[in-house]
Inverse folding.
């Protein structure tokens, strides 16, 4: 029997295999990933950039066909739940379109849907026309810029020097200055 080092080389894999139970568990613990597995990280990467923001003292100007129509100021604005949605807090807006007297709009909250060009005002909405001494009060108002229509699905109250009107809902066309009231309408002269 020859004892050359080349003949002893076959012993290395045998020693490696026989001693595996001794060195494999500590090596496995050492190489195990730290932390947990979060499936969100293995998902497909979005190709659109994330556009989350929060801003204080915001001023937004909305234009239509190159003319300013709305000047919207908010105490705070931030991104909404969906893309192209801006949430606002303490909204103070002025409608200056169609070459009419400015109309002041105040609400506690607002939302602007950029793609639909829709302004939604919520919670204690007050619309006043100072020169006409007219004020509209409601809790929810939708303004559709494409059609120049305002819609209030809930109760509406209009107060002027001449009358006091309560209605269950309202549609208002800014281009014709026409009102359409729904449900029960009461007027006090």
């Amino acid at each position: 029997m020859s004892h050359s080092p080349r003949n002893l080389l076959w012993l290395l894999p045998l020693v490696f295999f026989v001693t595996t139970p001794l060195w494999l568990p500590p090596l496995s613990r050492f190489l195990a990933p730290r932390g947990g597995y979060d499936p969100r990280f293995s998902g497909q990467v979005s190709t659109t950039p994330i556009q989350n923001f929060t801003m204080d003292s915001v001023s937004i100007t909305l234009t239509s066909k190159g003319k300013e129509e709305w000047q919207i100021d908010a105490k705070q604005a931030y991104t909404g739940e969906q893309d192209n949605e801006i949430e606002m807090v303490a909204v103070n807006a002025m409608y200056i379109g169609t070459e009419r007297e400015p109309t002041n709009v105040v609400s506690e909250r607002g939302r602007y849907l950029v793609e639909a060009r829709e302004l939604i005002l919520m919670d204690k909405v007050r619309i006043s026309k100072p020169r006409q001494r007219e004020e509209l009060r409601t809790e929810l108002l939708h303004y559709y810029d494409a059609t120049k229509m305002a819609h209030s699905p809930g109760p509406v109250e209009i107060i002027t020097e001449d009358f006091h009107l309560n209605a269950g809902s309202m549609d208002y066309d800014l281009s014709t200055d026409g009102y359409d009231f729904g449900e029960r309408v009461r007027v006090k002269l």
